[in-house]
Amino acid sequence: MELGKPNLDVFAETLLELGRQEPNLLVVTGDSRGSAKLAAFCQTLPGQVVEVGIAEQNLVGISAGLTAAGKKVFAVSPACFLTARGLEQIKNDVAYSDMPVKLIGISAGVSYGALGTTHHSLHDFAVLLAIHNIDIVVPADNFETRETVKAALNHPRPIYIRLDKKPVYHLHHPDTVFQIGKAIVLSRGSDVTFIATGETVAPAVMATRVLTERGISSGVISVHTLCPLDEESILEAASTSRAIVTVEEHSVNGGLGSRVASLLLEKGIFVPFKMVAFPVEYMVTGSQSEIFAHYNITPQGLAETATRLLCSKQEIK
């Protein structure tokens, strides 16, 4: 696979393209224009930028007000602060008030690495999934990021878009069709299917190559939208694979894995299942890559997880 740009770069580039065409597009930022790669946007379209400083609650409230006035607002802030400090405003001013603000959570997951737990965003899926009327999109690569931002411009509902910092691999064919709420099947496997989201999709794809060498048929679904969830694609994978492994850069509680497990149980589909996410413990300190490696969110680690899961199924038989 070819390595691309950080999704944040593609987000900023796409936003500038859209901003030049749409004067009603506004960016509201909380002292994060640098980390969000928005310098070019601010220099080119200074009249379409509102800076509120380090004040996430104000950022969300102001964005909701501007949206009510007819603006198309992208509210940009680090995910860890946006979905914690600004949660009440997201719930009341955006979701419950049905304001189609585009909430952009940057440097999500463990992107801040050594800055530690205060800057990790491992709770955002859980808290937002518990709120009515907000869609959640987590792009896996540059293609998904570009298409998400373009779709978000005129998206009729509140939406949260989660972005990490590091360069990501290209995963999709150029003519791939993207639609919010519809997962993308990258490959199919009769033995195990990885259901992954965001930057964990790439290691899942690489894990299938390791498994192929072992004679194990594996596939990957990129679930870029957690809400609304593409239940059809997940149920199809669970009915055609011998095992399911979910992968996400989030707590084991309340994220993609929890949603998939709940769906399968509700539908009466009993298949060997493993959730790969961060456990509820004090996180190790290190870069994003080092933290991923520690918790086996690597091609080799995911391949081992899938192999053990399949072996345990055979032992049960």
CATH class of the largest domain: Alpha Beta
Find the CATH superfamily of the largest domain.
Answer: Thiamin diphosphate (ThDP)-binding fold, Pyr/PP domains
- Quickly give the CATH architecture of the largest domain: 3-Layer(aba) Sandwich
How much helical structure, as a percent, in the residues? Answer: 25-40%
Pairing-aware structural class of the strands and helices?
alpha/beta
* Through-space gap between termini: 37 Å
**What's the average pLDDT?**
95
Low-confidence stretches are: none
**Global outline:** globular
| Largest sheet features | 7 strands, mixed
What features would you describe in this structure?
- The chain is an alpha/beta fold.
- It has helices spanning 7-21, 39-44, 56-68, 79-82, 87-95, 124-129, 142-153, 201-213, 231-240, 256-266, 288-294, 299-316; strands at residues 3-6, 25-29, 49-51, 72-78, 102-106, 135-137, 159-162, 167-169, 184-187, 192-196, 218-222, 225-227, 243-251, 273-278.
- It has a 7-stranded mixed sheet with strand order 3-2-4-5-7-6-12, sandwiched between helices. The chain has a 5-stranded mixed sheet with strand order 9-11-10-13-14, sandwiched between helices.
- The longest helix is centred in the C-terminal third of the chain and has 18 residues, at 299-316.
